[in-house]
Please model this.
Amino acid sequence: SQRTEMVQGLTGLLTALGVRDAATLAHSRRVAAIAVRVGEHMGLDRGAVSNLRLAGLVHDIGKAGVPDDILFKDGRLSEEQTVVMRSHVDLAVSMLRAIPGTDAIARIVSQHHECPDGSGYPRGLRAKAIDPAASILRVADVYAALTEPRPYHTPTDTSAALAVMSELSGSRIDAAAFAALRAVVGHAAASDIIESGSTPAFKEVNT
Model:
């Protein structure tokens, strides 16, 4: 079936990403798991949850096209480097478009850095112009980035991450998706997707 062929194509992209950057692949798997929990909590149907999971897995595949000196930089990116890093979204969409049947997934990936207040990228979309699934993926991505170790910041714990995200709710992240995330990560059953960290800190992550 077309979906089977699509999944095989996505698996190939993930394999290539894992060879290049195992940490990003691990991050993508965790983001997908969190996004699925949030989507289910918000009542998405099975098909939408499946697309959300796949989008979570491949949302960063475009980083395979980012130069090593930027992708693996130990520290904050310069303005010029940030522009290159942000190109990973369009690179990911181009890679997905080459696989038949990925239109819905590509749409989610293309918008997962957009913000309700229009400050996101690459299109500067606002509020209702953003696919709800992309808003869920963004919330999962931000939470994962805050609670995972990165070269440019130490990880926060769950409470600190939620406190930081609360300040972003409604402007940088979707309020409804954040409320669902808060409910999901606060539940004992979600312990497998929560990793403790330290030192609350939020920076504009290099994602």
